[in-house]
Amino acid sequence: MKETSPHLLEEFDQELAIAPVSKGTRFANYLVDNICFQVLYYLVYDLWQPPRQTTAWSDRLLTDLAVSFTLYFVYYLFFESVLKGRTPGKLVTGTVALKDNGGALTFNDVLKRSLYRLIPIEPLSIFWGEVWHDSFTNTIVTRKIK
């Protein structure tokens, strides 16, 4: 009888090396998701709202901001929850958000990621290192493994 070599079993003990995608890929995700979000915003807010009464521009601005932030939060919460770490942008680029240890995102992870995206300067965090909604939640965007 042939003995099993310990070297053959070592591959099962090794963790999968997960590499973050490039800043260019992250920008492509951001661009596609923002185009999709703008379409959603137009459909939900501009088409379904009642005709505006003559009100002060500051009142309209506050309403627009509140609706925009709420829809933005719901957009990411919905897609990353339902599509298991993916958004339309990530579908286009073949990427996925995972925990930094390679595990799937939990609803709590998605909730936190979506909340951090509401920080107004958060998209600029890519220029200072790691994107905040990744670093603060211990997640990573990587290529989708087939």
Characterise this structure.
The chain has 6 helices and 2 strands. It starts with 5 loop residues before the first helix and ends with a strand. The longest helix is centred in the middle third of the chain and has 26 residues, at 57-82. The relative contact order is 0.16. It has 146 residues and is mostly helical.
Features:
146 residues; 6 helices; 53% helix; elongated; mainly alpha; 2 strands
**Total DSSP E strands:** 2
Strand order, main sheet: write it out.
Answer: 1-2
Uncertain regions spanning at least 5 consecutive residues:
11-15
- Estimated structural class: mainly alpha
Strand content: 5-15%
List the secondary-structure elements in sequence, H or E: HHHHEHHE
The amount of helix comes to 40-55%
The value of Rg in angstroms is: 20 Å
Mean pLDDT figure = 83
How many distinct folded domains?
1
Enumerate how many helices there are, as a single number.
6
Assembly form of the protein: single chain
Put the structure in a nutshell.
The protein is mainly alpha-helical. The protein contains six helices and two strands, in the order H-H-H-H-E-H-H-E. 53% of the residues lie in helices and 7% in strands.
Question: What's the layout of helices and strands?
Answer:
Layout: H1 6-13, H2 23-46, H3 57-82, H4 88-93, E1 95-99, H5 107-116, H6 132-135, E2 139-143
Helix pairs in contact: 2-3, 3-5
